[in-house]
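Hi L.,

You mentioned the student needs an example of a multi-chain input paired with its predicted structure. This one should do, with 737 residues in total across all chains.
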Amino acid sequence: MSPHVQSELLAAYAGGEIEGARAYSIEAHVVECADCQAAVARLVEPARMQRGWADIEDRLDTPRPAAIEAALGRLGVPGHLARLLAATPSLSVSWLGAVTVALAFAVIAAHESERGLLLFLCVAALLPLAGVAAAFGRGLDPVFEIAVAAPFSSVRLLLLRTAAVLPTTIALAGIAALTLPGVGWTAAAWLLPSLGLTVMSLALATYVAPSRAFGGVTAGWLAIVVFSAIDAGDRLAAFDSGAQVAFVVLALGGGIVLALRQDHLDLGRTL
Amino acid sequence: MSASLAAGLSDEKLLAAVAGGDRQALRVLYERHAPWLTLRLARRCADADAVSDAVQDTFVVVWKSAARYQGGGAVGAWMWGIAIRRLIDALRRRPRREFHSSERIDVEPSAEEQVLLGVEHGDLAGALDRLSSELRAVVQATILDGLTSREASRLLGIPTGTVKTRAMRARIQLRKEMA
Amino acid sequence: MTLAVKAAGVHKRLGSTHALAGVSLDLGDGITGLLGPNGAGKTTLMRVLATVLAPDSGSVRLLGHDPADREARPVIRRRLGYMPQEPGFHQRFTAFEFVDYVAILKEMTARRERHDEVRRVLDLVGLGDVAQQRIKALSGGMRRRVALAQALLGDPRLVILDEPTAGLDPEQRLRFRELISRLAQDRSVLISTHQTEDVAALCHHVVVLRDGETVFAGAPRELAEVARDRVWLADERSAGAELSWLTGDGRHRHVGNAPPAHAELVEPTLEDGYLLLVGRGSLAVAA
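Structure written out for the whole complex:
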């Protein structure tokens, strides 16, 4: 073949009319010849090439999903919601790391004494609450002002974040509970309280400012834990079966209140 | 860099710019090479979506690995190597049946036709054309496109063993013709 | 044509401060400048107009709706763009990721279209090339532009920009002015600023706040007129002068009554009018 391919031949090649050995010769030439490459470029439909470039650009721009986001995607969460949830402060690696450390210390304490076990149960019950409270925190979500001014319902975002944070934190606490020394069912005595406290705090947050709701519930419950331990002479009195039943009732009741009054969680009003 | 500046640069210089994160340089490389790559890939695979995915993937790979280009002047060949392997990958991601190539199902030319075609002994091009399309596809993949037997088997959708036997048959037939 | 904003008698207390003490404001199409010293209530007013804060009393209508109505708020917010004074960013985000995040909050769920829109606004503010850089690696001026870009997502009808030119150098401020003036057609833009030159260059309507009250609302020309016959140039500073400063050409400019001896009356500028209205406390701003 001559140093350059004639334009008719290239056009025929581009049209799919050249085959076999002649096509191979053309290809072997084009791969190294800038002029023929340019000639081919003129023969291919530009709109198709532009679409291709737009696709490539979008591929390069699309942020690489964080681990949380990918995990949520695999669970069937739509892409845009997964993106929003992945930005939740209490789902970040640093937060979850802090939770793990706190649980580890609590487990160590639980191995030492019954007082340590009480500490573990309190920590495990309150960590999910803390995670949810953090989703409300203005200080922790820097995009707060812009988010409030956006049409996506802040309440919906909050509840979605709660739905993501709760199982995650509870799962971590659950794993930690498995490493407790043989205490039987007591190892899970924090589960119902954590759910009940969280739901109650959210329900209360439809009446008062979130910080007051979460703070108040936490302080109130810790006071009950201390008093009941002293009163009954049993350190774990606040976790006995009566308390578990009470928390089921509180969780259900709080859930109903929350469902009815969820719009009052709209932060724009309570800022 | 600006589009007009980029348009005047050699492929090697553009690659160096791409390694530095210059998207305009990548765009010019795309405009230069995506068309012929698309055509060449389309002759190895009838699935147009797989071809456009492969071209897209190729340039994303170029974006990420431009710094690893060693030089030596053969930017086009480097890109083709990436592209054909991206096509294999794209095909692997899709459920598919075997096909040979995008060429028509060939009928062996009769003896008269051979004479009419003016074929002579020692003519490699003619000998290639007389191979059946299955054998020719294997020759194309392993010799012209430089794929390994395993890569060729993935591209063509046939077992590796079949690739090897067809390559051997092709070699035997070509040798006979060229003798 | 409906006004984008109609606010009357807006009050808002923040803690013990009476941040807004009966502010009224009407906003039509085009660019309106909101001037006022620190603590005048500009940011509070903007937050109220951006539906971020609820006023204690007064009537507010945004884009024809009442933000106190829970159902109306998303409707307003869909056509609203807001750039806060101190936007927070997730530090680990790139510029693209941040604007993409806000775009999701603006209910753009389809990924490809959303990304196209993110690219559009980033190109609009001139950040197309650095879109993939982390925000913490960007300069202050670039970060402001990221904040501006997110406010422009979805082509909003009402755009509220709180101190958008703070921290920008003159060249950036010029580019910003060009950008905003292009946007202003068929849109209402409210800009708060300390820079009277921005207002003079951009705005066809000006509102001046002081201590939570509106002390002026009208055209920039009219604001300058407030200082008619009250602006003087002299060779020396007048003793006991309130608003008097040394200008670049070596003479003293004096705004107010009681001019110094041998003073020359000059044409008032917008800045002179503004200074006269807000008093001596703002002299530091004018320097």
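You could point out the following to them. Residues 100-121 of chain B have pLDDT under 50 and may be disordered. Chain B has ten helices and no strands.

Best wishes,
N.
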